[in-house]
Amino acid sequence: MYLVHIGIATMDWVPVVFVTFKVLVLGTGMYFAIKWHYDQGENGQRGAVLRAGGKMAAVFMLSLLCVGLLAFVVSRMVGLDLSLP
Fold first, then answer.
1. Same structural domain, 1 and 39
2. Rounded CA gap, 39 and 45, in Å?
3. Quick one: 55 and 34 in the same domain?
4. pLDDT recorded at residue 24
5. Are residues 58 and 32 in the same domain?
6. I need a surface site. Which of 18, 43, 55, 81 has the fewest CB within 10 A?
7. Number of domains observed in the structure of the chain
């Protein structure tokens, strides 16, 4: 049962609040991560920062590929039809 308050159902505001919170938290985290890396680069360790960033990007892409393949294999094992129309 929906509780109606000013014409808006109670459950309609939940995604708005959660998405807003997620955007604020991730935006703040990205800001401070970029600021920290920029400050580290000013200290003369620019090469080390670039290498670390490259390594992290490679690890992220590799883990993304592994999760995608795992999802594909599990979905095929369960019997989902993954063929294109």
1. yes
2. 10
3. no
4. 94
5. no
6. 81
7. 2
User: pTM of the predicted model, to two decimals?
Assistant: 0.47
Residue 6 lies in a domain: yes
Distances (CA, A) of 54 to 11, 48, 60, 63, 77: 42, 10, 10, 14, 35
Residue type present at position 69? L
Q: Please give the pLDDT value at position 82.
A: 78
First-last CA distance in the chain: 38
| pLDDT tens, residue by residue, 21-52 | 999 999 999 999 888 878 876 766 667 777 88
User: Is residue 85, in this structure, part of any structural domain at all?
Assistant: no
Instruction: Tell whether 38 and 52 lie within a shared domain.
Output: no
Task: Quickly tell me which residue has 């599990």 as its tokens.
Answer: 74
